[in-house]
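I would like you to sit down with the pair of lines that follows and say whether C-alpha cells and residues agree.
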Amino acid sequence: MKNILKTFAVLVSASLISVTAKAGELTVTGSAKASYLINGGNDTGKAMGVSNELNFTASGEMDNGFTWTYHTELDPADGGAASNDDTAIVIGMGDLGTVGIYDAEGGLSTELGWGIGAMGVGADYANTMTNIGRGYDVSSDPHFSYTTAAGMLPFGIQAAVGFAPNVNDGQSNSYKGGGAQVDAAAAGTNATQYKITASPIDGLKIGGDYYETGGHKVNNVSQHKTGGNVYAQYAMGNFKVGYTKGKLEPAKTDDKYGTNTADSATALGGDAYESDGLGLEFAVNDQLSLSISEEDFTRVHKTMAATASTNTRNTVTSSQTTIMAAYNIGGATLGLSLVDTDNSDYTANRDETKTIVSLALAF
C-alpha cells in the first residue's frame, strides 16, 4: 500500500508539471469567540477568554480543468501568542477525486462523525479530562491523501487514504525543510489512515476509519500503535441521533514476559483506550437548538507477572454527560454548555463539572 501511494503521488505530480495555474482569488473568513467558564466538583476556578481565528484561502483553476485551493489559519494560543497552522494545498481533479498535501490539517479520523452537540461535538467541545486518549489521526503529521469524488461510488460512499512518510518530522515545516531522521521507533516511522463514509438512505450517515503505523520499528515492540472509530447518525425532521465507538492501542515495548511498568491513573500510559458515545439533538426552531449526550471513556491497563501466562486486565471508566443549548441571532450564537464527569482523569470518585457561557461571531 505504501508503494502504491508513493507511486500515485509521483504520477499526479508529474501530470501537473506541464500545466499552469491561472491567477486565483484570496478570501479571509473567521470567527471571534468569548466565553465565561466555571469549574466545579474536584476542580474549582473561573475564567474568561476571548479568541479569534482567521482563515486565509486562495483558489484558482489550472488550464487542464483541475482546480486548486490553498489555506492557512492564524490562531491565537494561550498567553496571547499566535501561530500559522492548519495549512493545506488541495488539487481538485473533477470526477477523479482530490489529492491534498496537509500540515496539521486534512484529518481522516471519524471520531466526531456522530455529530451531536448544539455548540460542538460532545467531549471534543468541552471536557474535564487531562487526556481522553481517543482518536489517532494522520493530521498529526505532515501527510498527503487521496479522496474519491462525490458520486463516484454508490450509496453515497466516499473513501480516503492518507500517508504520513515521517511521523517524527513535526508540524509547520518550511519549504524544502530537511526533516528529522529516526532509524527506528516503537511507534514506527510512518503512518497510514483509511476512511470510508456512506449515506445509504435519506437521513442516515455512517462511517469509520482505521489508523496504523509502519516503517522501521524497534525489535521488542509487543503492541503496535493502531486505532479506529465507527459512527452512525440518523436525522428525521427536527431530531438527530448519533452513536460512536472507538478504540486505540499505543505502541508498547516489553521484555520477553510482556511485563509493563505500571503507570498512574491519569497518565496516557494505558495499554488501550475505548470510547462510546450516544446523543440526541433537537432543533426547536430556526434559532434554538438543544442537545444531550453521554460518553464513556475506558482506560485499560494490563499487568503480567514474570512467571504468569495470562494478563490481568484493570479498567477505569470516565463518564461524561454534556447538555448544550445554542441560540442564533443572525451572525451571533449564544451558547450554554453543562459538562458533568464521573471518574474524571480515569481517577475513581473524582467528579468534575464545567459550565460554559459563550458568544460566537462568524465573519
